[in-house]
Amino acid sequence: MTELPVAGPSPAISEIDPASLAAWLQARGEPAYRADQVLRGAHRPDVASFEDLTDLPVPLREALAEAFRFSAINDTHVVGADRGLTAKAVHELADGQRIESVLMRYPARGAASARTTICISSQAGCAVACPFCATGQAGFGRQLTAGEIVDQVLHWHRPPWRALGDAGGHYNVVFMGMGEPLNNADRVFAAVRLLNDPRRLGIGARHITVSTSGVVPGMDRMVDELPQVNLAISLHASTDELRDELVPINRKWPIRDVIGAGRRFAERTGRRVSLEYVMIDGLNDGDAQAAGLADLARGWRCHVNLIPLNPTPGSRWSGTPPAGIERFVRILRAGGVTVTVRDTRGREIEAACGQLHAQLSGRSLREAREARALPAAPVATA
Ligand code: SAH
Ligand code: SF4
Questions:
Q1: What are 5-24's pLDDT values in tens digits?
Q2: DSSP H/E element including 78
Q3: Whose CA is nearest to atom 8 of ligand 1?
Q4: How far apart are alpha carbons 382 and 17 in whole angstroms?
Q5: 339: buried, middle or exposed (CB in 10 Å: 19+, 13-18, 0-12)?
Q6: Distance between alpha carbon 124 and the CA centroid of its chain, in Å?
Q7: How far does the centroid of ligand 1 lie from the alpha carbon of residue 308, in Å?
Q8: Residue 148 annotated in active site
Q9: How far is CA 2 from the centre of its chain?
C-alpha cells in the first residue's frame, strides 16, 4: 500500500516518544522529571492546550507550543444525536484528509452501570471496498499515524467531553470507524501501546477492540503482539460466494482461513472472539445463511453480533426488519451459538462511519461550517 507522508510541522504530543521529549527538555536545561510532568499533564481531562499546564513555567509552556502540536488533528466538527448520548466528530488532519470518530454513552440501567464507547478510525478511507460501507465506497486515502489514531480518543477525553471520566472506568475504544486496522497494523499496534501507557491515557488492552474484515496475517500478529486486545471479525456471510461480494478481501483470505485465524486467536489467548454480521434484507439473512453461520461459530470461543444494515445514501439495500432478525437469532441459538443484536445508535447523524465525510463532498470543515452544511453539536454533558 502506498503511503503519503503527513505534512505536519512538528510532532504531536500524543505520539512523541518519551526519550525524545526528555532529550528536548534536557537541552533546554529542564530537570529530568519534566518529561513525565508534560506527558501526564497533556493527557489530563481538564487540559485543552499547553497553556492549561499551569504547573509549568510560562516560558516552557510557550516553548512546548512552538516545538510540538497539542494534537495531530487540526480541526474538528461535532454533530449529535440520541439527545446528546451519541456524538460524531469529523476530524481534519494536517494535509486536509478527513476521518471520523464517534462517542456513544449508555446511561446506567437497572443493575447495568453506565458505559462509554469511543469508535475510532485507523485509515483515511479504506481499500477493502465493501459495497454496503460508505468508507469502502469512497476509496483509500492514506494510512493514519499512531498520533492521529490516539488523538481521536484524546479529542473525546478532553474538554468539554471528558468522556473517559464519566463512566466509572466502564469504557471501550473500538477500531470500528473508517479503515481496515490490520492493513495499517504497525501504526494501529503503536497506537494501542500509546493508549495503554500509564503516563498517557492508561487504557487497558481489554478495553480495546480491533475489528477486521479478515486480514489473516494481522490477526496472527495480534496473538503474539496484542493478546489482551479484543478481536472482532466482520464476517457478514457464511458462504464464500456471497462474502466475495460483500467483503471483497474474502477473495484473498476466504472464510475458512478467517475462521481458522479467529480460532487460533481464541485458543491461544483464551479470549472470546466476536463475529460481526451486518443484516441486509433478502441478501444474507436467509435460513440457510443462518444455519451456515451457526456451523462456523459452533464449538469455539466466539459469539455472533448482528448489526442491522444502516443503509448508505443511494444504497440498493436495506436493513433486515426486526421479525427477520428474530428468526435469524432463533436459528443461531438453536444451533448452539451465543448471539446479541447491536442497537443502531446515531442513525440520524449518519453514524456508520464514512457517511458524514461523504456529505461534505470535498469541502473543508471551515467551508462547510460557513455554508451551514453541517448539523450542530449536542451539548456536552460532563
Ligand atoms: N474495516 C474494519 C473496521 C471498520 S468497519 C471492518 O470491516 O471490520 C466496522 C464495522 O462497521 C464492520 O463490521 C462493518 O462491516 C460495519 N459497517 C460498515 N458499513 C456499515 C453499514 N452501512 N451499516 C452497518 N454496519 C456497517
Ligand atoms: Fe473497509 Fe470495514 Fe468499510 Fe469494509 S466495512 S470497506 S473493511 S471500513
A1: 545 569 999 999 999 999 99
A2: strand 73-81
A3: 212
A4: 30
A5: buried
A6: 12
A7: 11
A8: no
A9: 22
SS3 of 286, please?
coil
Q: Which of 178, 105, 104, 103 is nearest to 148 (CA)?
A: 178
- The pTM is what? 0.92
C-alpha cell at 262: 479467529
Cell of 285: 439473512
Cα 125 to averaged position of ligand 2 atoms, centre (Å): 9
Separation in Å, CA 71 to CA 5, 47, 127, 143, 144? 17, 12, 26, 17, 14
pLDDT at 377: 61
Cell 456513544, residue?
104
pLDDT (tens digit, 9 = 90+) per residue, 52-102?
A: 999 999 999 999 999 999 999 999 999 886 667 889 999 999 999 999 999
Cell of 327: 428468526
**String of DSSP letters for 102-155:** EEEEE--BTTBPPEEEEE--SEEE-SS--TT-HHHHH-EEEEPPHHHHHHHHHH
For residue 273, which amino acid is it? V
Per the listing, cell 444494515 goes with 309
In order along the chain (382 residues), what is the average pLDDT of each group of 10 residues?
55 94 96 95 96 97 97 93 82 95 88 89 97 93 97 96 78 95 98 96 96 98 97 98 98 98 98 97 98 98 95 91 97 97 65 53 68 61 44
Half-sphere exposure at residue 62, Cβ-oriented, CA atoms within 13 angstroms: 3
Q: Cell digits for 51?
A: 497553556
What is the 128 CA–ligand 2 centroid distance (Å)? 6
Which residue in this structure is represented by grid cell 487504557? 203
Residues in the chain: 382
Asked whether the beta carbons of 248 and 129 are under 8 A apart, the reply is yes
Sign of the dihedral through C-alpha 123, 124, 129, 130: positive
Supply the residue whose CA is at minimum distance from atom 12 of ligand 1.
234
